[in-house]
Amino acid sequence: MTRHRLACSVFAAASILLAAGAASAQDQAFSFGLWGDLPYAKSNDLPKIKGLIDDMNASDIAFAMFDGDIKDGSSKCDDQVFTDAIAMFNAFKMPSVYVPGDNEWTDCHRTNNGGYDNLERLDHMRKVMFADPQSFGGQKMAMDHQAAPGEKFSENTRFVHGNIVFVGLNIPGSNNNKVNDDKTCTAKSARTKAQCDADNKEYAERDSANVAWMHQAFALAKTQKSPGIVLVFQADPWFDLPETEDKNERDDPNSDGYTNFLKAVVDEAKAYDGQVLLVHGDTHFFKLDHPLLDQAHMIENITRLETFGSPNAHWVKVTVDPRYREVFLVQPMIVKGN
After folding, report:
1. How far apart are CA 99 and CA 291, in angstroms?
2. Handedness of CA 77, 35, 234, 224 (dihedral sign)
3. Residue 85 to residues 104, 191, 211, 219, 284, Cα–Cα distance (Å)
4. Computed from CA positions of residues 173, 174, 179, 180, in that sequence, does the dihedral angle turn out positive or negative?
5. Which of 23-32, 180-189, 198-207, 261-270 has the lowest mean pLDDT?
6. At residue 251, does pLDDT exceed 80?
7. Burial, 76: exposed, middle or buried (Cβ in 10 Å; 0-12, 13-18, 19+)?
8. Which tens digit of pLDDT belongs to each residue from 123-159?
9. Which residues pair with 288 in a beta bridge?
10. 168 HSE (CA, 13 A, CB side)
11. Using CA of residue 85, residue 232, residue 42, residue 50, what is the dihedral sign?
12. What is the 8-class DSSP label of residue 166?
C-alpha cells in the first residue's frame, strides 16, 4: 500500500470513529430537574428549600430549571425578593435556569402586593435576573437570549444539551398579563385604565416575541435533528378548554392570553418528527398528560408536565434517552421531610 493510500485509509478510519463518537455522545442519556412555585411565605415554605436543593444537588441531574413564581401572590414585590431568589438559585452546584412567573411581576399591581406598577417590576426583573447571559448555579451554563442582557425579552432563553433543545419563555399566569375588562383591571388593584391599556400592549408585543422565539427553537431542533424539544414557562394555559359540549372556548382568540401561543405550538409540533415536552407550574399539581387538542384530536408528540408547587416542596426528574420511544422519562421526586 502506498503512503498516500495508507494516509487516506487512516483518515477515513479516524473520520468513522469521530462520527461514531459524535453519534454516541448525542445518544448519551442524561437527566435534568424541574421545580417551581416556591417559596411561598404564606405556606412557610422557606425551611423546606434547603432540603429540596440538597436533594437535587445529591442527584445526577445535569442542570435544574425553575418554572416561575419565586414568591406567593399576596406578598410584597420588593427588590429583596429577587436578591433572595438569586442566592437560592446559586445554591445549586449545577447550572440553574430561571423562568419568570406571574407573582414576581404580573400580579404586583395588587394592593396586597404593594400596588406596584407591574411593568416597572417586569423591567426590574429583566435587569436583575437576566443581567448575565449565563445561568445561575455553582457551575454556570452559557445560554442564548432573545435580547441583550437586561433588555426587553432577555428573559427568553435557549440552550442545547445532549442534542435536545431547551427553551425558557416568559408566559406567566394571570392570563399572560392580558386584561379582558375594566372589572379585572381594577379588582383588588392599584391599576388605572391607562396602565391596563399598557398591559395589553405589553402582552401583545411579548406574545409575538414568544411565538417568534419558539419558532426559532423548532427550526434549530429540525436542523440538528433533535429527538426532542422542551418548552418551559410558568402559566397553566388552561389546557382543559374547551370544556363544554356546545361551545369551544378556544374559538375566540381574544378571550384568553394563551390561545395564540398554543396554536403556534400545535402547528410546529405537527411538522416536527420529535417529541415536545411542555413544562409549566402555576396550579401546583403534578400532572403528566397529553392535553392537546381534545380527546378526538390528540397531538401525539406533545406531552404536558406540570411541576409541584407550594406547599409541596418537591421536584421532578426527567431522564432523556433517544432510545426511548417517548424520549423523556418523567419521575416525581418526593423530598423526605418536606
Report:
1. 22
2. positive
3. 11, 26, 27, 33, 19
4. positive
5. 23-32
6. no
7. middle
8. 999 999 999 999 999 999 999 999 999 999 999 999 9
9. 305
10. 26
11. negative
12. E
β-bridge partners, 320: 30, 328
Q: What cell was used for 24?
A: 454516541
The 10s digit of each residue's pLDDT in 191-246 is 999 999 999 999 999 999 999 999 999 999 999 999 999 999 999 998 866 555 66
DSSP 205-234: HHHHHHHHHHHHHHHHHHHTT-SEEEEE-S
CA–CA distance, 310 with 41 (Å, rounded to integer): 10
Q: Is the peptide bond before 227 cis (omega within 30 degrees of 0)?
A: no
| Residue 178 vs residues 16, 102, 118, 335: alpha-carbon distances, Å | 54, 12, 12, 36
- DSSP code at position 335: P
Helix (H) or strand (E) holding 14, with range, is: helix 3-26
Residue with cell 369551544: 248
- Judge whether 36 and 283 are in contact, CB under 8 Å: no
Q: Name all domains of the chain by residue range, CATH numbers in brackets.
A: 29-333 (3.60.21.70)
Number of residues that make up the chain: 338
> Residues 287, 305: contact at Cβ < 8 Å?
yes
| Rg of the chain over all Cα atoms, to the nearest angstrom | 21
- Contact present, 316 and 305 (Cβ < 8 Å): yes
